[in-house]
Structure formats: C-alpha cells, structure tokens
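The records we work with from here on pair a chain with its fold. The integers have meaning only within a learned vocabulary of local backbone shapes. A complete example follows; check for yourself that the lines match position by position.

:::
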Amino acid sequence: MTDTPAHDWLRPRLEQLVAEAEATGIERSVAIAVLTDIITSDGFDPGHLAGDVDA
C-alpha cells in the first residue's frame, strides 16, 4: 500500500477524468453530477445496499 493519502492519490486522477469529459464536450457540472451519481450508487456505496443512507 502507498504512503500517499487517498485524497492526494485520487484527486489528480479524478481531475483528469473530469478534464477528459470536458474535452469530449461534456459540461463540467454534468460530469461531476454523473460521477456523484455513480459513486453513491449501489455498486460503490455498500451502505446504500444495507439501507444506511440518510433520507
């Protein structure tokens, strides 16, 4: 495992992904909204599956 904090490791990759989306014509706000939707979906958020999501 790396000694790099997760935020420091993930941030540049996420920024690059958003930049690539923008380069293909996807608005930044849309790219971020879609990423948020994906990250909070069943496949990425185990708490969501267990019903641990705040209403």
Notes: The radius of gyration is 14 Å. The mean pLDDT is 87. The chain has three helices and no strands. Helices lie at 6-23, 28-39, 46-50.
